[in-house]
Design a protein that fits this description.
The chain is an all-alpha fold. It has 14 helices and two strands; from the N terminus they run H-H-H-H-H-H-H-E-H-E-H-H-H-H-H-H.
């Protein structure tokens, strides 16, 4: 992370060298923050996100079929978040040490991160639109909310995310940065320095000329801000505002309880993603303006902290969109019961094999035979 702007400036110096050498900013405060957040906080995010999203996928795979448009969206959101938390340890490794996995792994890591980012955010917008149709446009919901439509929309979302991530796949490169070479060596220490020096490679953006660097450095974060945050935010605000107004008109306790769920979804989304996107917007506006090392270090610290808050959303998605519903909680309890019975079965197979089989069959029957109104997101 700290190498990106430095390498960009060093690439510019290759074409605009004026005889002056400026030492790079090492962002010591940001490095200290990353040494705490990277190994510890991100590890917690990975564990919680992996468990939560895996439970959602397991539920759909073994306990609940995708019977509605919402189910399809929830499953795809869980897949996107799961892929993200799986790649997060490698991202942390890349930020804290030299990248040693080569060019292909570098491009796949950064590109898949971008795809999961766009797809996850756009799918959340699709869920809000689905809730709007189901509640506000209830008369037309049966015709509009069909499984073929939902699968087509998800395919379009993933294709759009892949298309928007093409610049990331293309410009991220595995290379040894200019400031990674030993310089200013004296004759007496030259041989010793060369023996002790180990090449340090990074997986970061790299450009052939200043014009490409300028355009891409502005285009990538601008697209992320527009499509990956503001567009889903506007869709969510519009749809959920209409949903809340409709629910408040209904004199029903469950409907008023659903208003709190909707508000929680919007508030958590804004609280997680707004700080980082505002910081990214500020960084994009002044990315090519010369700044002091202290100010640049402070901005890097702000980006690291707010980005970590944004990462938390992948852990909260299963809670907000799946486990908040009564039916999903029941499915989750079934999973725990089946795992407990399965564990007993392997410990004392003769005694519990028949009981476990009967419980599992009755569980599947009760789950599959339960009434479903076509929505996992209980409103």
């Amino acid at each position: 992370m700290m190498y990106q702007q430095e390498e960009m400036l060093l690439n510019q110096s290759d074409y605009e060298y004026n005889g002056n050498v400026t030492s790079p900013c090492y962002h010591q405060n940001n490095n200290r923050v990353e040494m705490v957040i990277g190994p510890y906080v991100h590890s917690i995010i990975c564990i919680l996100g992996f468990v939560g999203n895996s439970l959602v996928i397991i539920t759909y795979a073994f306990y609940k079929r995708t019977k509605s448009m919402t189910d399809v969206y929830l499953l795809n959101v869980a897949v996107a978040d799961l892929l993200f938390v799986v790649s997060l340890p490698l991202i942390v490794y890349n930020d804290l040490s030299s990248w040693s996995m080569g060019l292909v792994a570098c491009k796949l890591l950064r590109g898949s991160y971008s795809v999961n980012l766009y797809s996850g955010m756009l799918l959340l917008a699709c869920i809000s639109a689905d809730r709007y149709i189901a509640i506000v446009q209830a008369r037309r919901s049966f015709r509009l909310r069909s499984l073929p439509y939902s699968r087509l929309i998800c395919a379009i979302v993933w294709a759009t995310a892949l298309l928007l991530s093409v610049p990331t796949f293309h410009f991220y490169d595995w290379y040894q940065p200019s400031h990674g070479f030993p310089i200013m060596m004296f004759d007496d220490d030259e041989e010793e320095a060369e023996e002790n020096f180990r090449p340090q490679h990074v997986c970061e953006l790299r450009f052939n000329n200043t014009a490409t660097a300028w355009n891409t450095k502005v285009a990538i974060p601008s697209t992320q801000l527009a499509v990956g945050f503001f567009l889903p935010l506007l869709i969510m605000i519009f749809c959920y505002t209409a949903v809340i107004v409709t629910l408040l008109r209904a004199k029903n306790f469950q409907r008023h309880k659903a208003v709190r769920v909707v508000l929680a979804v919007v508030v958590v989304f804004i609280a997680c993603h707004l700080p980082y996107n505002l910081t990214l917007l500020y960084d994009t506006v002044k990315i090519f303006k010369e700044d002091s090392c202290e100010a640049s270090d402070a901005l890097s610290v702000a980006k690291t902290l707010t980005q970590t808050i944004a990462y938390l959303h992948c852990c909260l998605n299963p809670v907000l969109y799946a486990f908040v519903g009564v039916k999903f909680r029941n499915h989750f309890r079934r999973i725990v019961q089946d795992l407990w019975c399965l564990g007993k079965r392997y410990i004392t197979p003769r005694r519990f094999s028949r009981v476990t089989s009967e419980i599992y069959v009755s569980t599947r029957r009760s789950v599959d035979g339960s009434s479903d109104n076509g929505s996992s997101f209980t409103m």
